[in-house]
Amino acid sequence: MVWQMIDGGVTAPLGYQAAGVTAGLKPSGATDLALIYSEVPAVPAGVFTTSCVRAACVDYNQRIVARQEPVQAILCNAGQANACTGLEGWRNAVECAELTQQELQIASAVLVASTGVIGRQLRMDLLRPAIPQVVRALRRDGSESAARAIITTDLVTKSVALSGEIAGKNVKIGGICKGSGMIHPNMATMLAFVTCDAAVSAPVWQEMLTRANAGSFNQITVDGDTSTNDMLLALANGQSGMPMITELDSAPAQQLQEMLNAVCQAMAKQIARDGEGATCLLEVNVAGTADVASARVMARTIAGSALVKSAVFGRDPNWGRIAAACGRSGVYFDQTKLHIQIGEFVVMTEGTPQPFDRQSASQYLKSELVQVFVRVGEGSGTGTAWGCDLSYDYVRINAEYTT
What phi and psi values does residue 372 have, to the nearest 5 degrees? Predict the structure, then answer.
C-alpha cells in the first residue's frame, strides 16, 4: 500500500476538531487541558495499562470501550494523574466526562485521560470552568494546541498523520501522544490518541489497535517503570465515505492496519527519543528466534538494560552488556550462534568476538539514532524495540519532579 505523511495530527482526518487551554493545573501556567472532538459519533478502541494500580480514567474508559459505546470526544488533563485517589477520584473522572458531554451537547460518550503527579485529587474548582473554555476553543486545525496541552516532562510535542487510498477513498489517520518518563512495556507515563475517518466495526477496530500496540508502544522503554495511567485510545468516525470494514482479513482491513501500525510506531519512537534526559534514540533489532514474541522480548530486554543504556550514553561500545542482556532475556538460544552488530560494526559472530575499530564505534554512539542488530539463530522470528540512553539528567529530572 502507498501512503504518505501529512500535517494535521488528530485533526487531519475528516470530521475532527481539537483544542488545548490553560486550566491552571500545571504550576508553570502552561496549557494543561486538551479536547479531541469528532463531529459525528465514532467507534472507540482502547489498550490500557496492565498495572493493578490504575488511575480512575483508565477504569472509566475500559468500561465504555468494552461496551462498544459510540464516543465523540476525548478530554485529557495534564498536571494531575488522578491515580490513587479513591472514590473521589472516580467521581471526578465521571464528572469531567459528563460536563464535557453537556457542553458539547452530545448523547455519545466522552473518554477521559489524566497525566501528572500521582496521589492528588483533581482540582475540580479549576476544571469545571475550563471545560466550557476548551469546548469553545475547538478548531479544525487545533491538533498542535491539544498536543501541547497533554505533555508534562516532555521536551517536545509529538504528532503524526498519514493519508492513503483504501477501497477507492482517501483515508487519513492522525495521532498525538505524550511520554518521556515512566515508560516501559505493558502499555508503556504515556498517553496516545488516534483519530481515523475510516468506517470500521468495533470488534475489528479493537483488534487492529491491539495488534498495532504490540509492535509499537509495547516495544518502547525509557526507565522500566510501567505507569498507572497508560492508555492508547482510537476513534474511527467513517467520514471518509469508504465501505464499512467488518472482516479482519479483508484487503481494506490489512491496508488500514498497515497505516495504523505506521502511526503507532512513529509516535512510539518519538516517545523513546524524548526520554527524560536522553541524547539519542536506541533501536534494537533481533532476528533468528523461534517466533516474533521471543524476538520482541529479547529486543525489549536489551533496550531496557540500564547497563546497555549507560554504555550508549558513555559512548562505550561495550557489547558484552548486549550479550548479557540477550542471555537473561528468558529466550533460549545457542550462544555459539550469537551475532551482535552496533551500527556497521560487527563485534561478535558465531559466538566469537570480532576485531573492530573501537574509536570509530564510540564515535558512532554519538549519533542521533543508535542501532543494534542481534541474530541468535536461523528462526523466522524478528522483533524491534526502541529506547534511549541513560544520562545524568534522568536522575536530576526525577529527583526534582514534585519539588
Answer: -120, 135
Catalytic machinery residues: 189
Cα 284 to Cα 296: distance, rounded to the nearest angstrom: 9
Sign of the dihedral defined by the CA atoms of residues 269, 275, 280, 284, in that order: negative
Q: One digit per residue, pLDDT tens: the chain, 403 residues?
A: 789 999 999 999 999 999 999 999 998 899 999 999 999 999 999 999 888 888 999 999 999 999 999 999 999 999 999 999 999 999 999 999 999 999 999 999 999 999 988 999 999 999 999 999 999 999 999 999 999 999 987 888 999 999 999 999 999 999 999 976 555 555 545 799 999 999 999 999 999 999 999 999 888 876 666 678 889 999 999 999 999 999 999 999 999 999 999 999 999 888 887 767 788 899 999 999 999 999 999 999 999 899 999 999 999 999 999 999 999 999 999 999 999 999 999 999 999 999 999 999 999 999 999 999 999 999 999 999 998 888 877 777 777 766 5
Report which secondary-structure segment, H or E, holds 164.
strand 158-166
DSSP 182: S
Q: What are the cell numbers at 187?
A: 502499555
Q: Which run of H or E residues covers position 59? A: helix 56-66
Helix segments in 82-201, DSSP class H: 86-104, 124-136, 143-149
How far apart CA 230 and CA 207 sit, in angstroms, is 18
Instruction: Give the rounded distance of the alpha carbon of 384 from its chain centre.
Output: 15
Q: C-alpha distances in angstroms, 353 versus 290, 302, 346, 372?
A: 24, 18, 9, 16
pTM confidence score: 0.86
- 18-52 in b/e form (b: 16+ CB < 10 A) is bbbbbbebbeeeebbbbbbbbeebbbbbbbbbebe
Which domains does the chain show, CATH number per domain?
A: 3-273 (3.60.70.12), 281-399 (3.10.20.340)
Alpha helix stretches (DSSP H) within 274-315? 292-304, 306-313
Residue pair 116/78 in contact by the 8 Å Cβ criterion? yes
How large is the C-alpha radius of gyration of the chain?
21
Q: DSSP letters of 318-372?
A: -THHHHHHHHTSS----GGG-EEEETTEEEEETTEE----HHHHHHHTTSSEEEE
